[in-house]
Amino acid sequence: MTVRLRAHHLLCMLTYVGRGYSPAFTANYDEIVLRLNAGEDVVLIEGPDDICRPLLGENPHAHCLNARVGQRDTRAASALSYWLGQAIDTGHALHLDNRLIERMRSAFAEGKTRKACLGCEWLALCTTVARKEFEGALLAPDLRE
Fold it and tell me: What is the rounded distance in angstroms from the CA atom of residue 88 to the CA atom of residue 118?
């Protein structure tokens, strides 16, 4: 299987420490991280993705559908494309191995991809996690690559 993610969730995954909008959201996110850690690939999509699914079930007006979240995706895709040297756009597939995650985390910690995070309610938490060298972050794919 493949995990379907919107572009800004590539950044969110880097600092995810088990907190979320609701218990259902967090349980779903935990499962997605387990799948990624087990080696499943990611395909980038536009709009609500596998992480958004519980929010859509809880609220038909979930923030996942807001235009500003789509703008966050655009900013994330642009920044990641530049810093990774590869196109990050709808339909693109990625394998989140340790090398790629470390490159993304380095750019995130240095503020090179953070424009996508402007206006996000989780900004302070993610900044703290990055400052602590991603201690406690759950995304850690198996070293067998």
Answer: 19
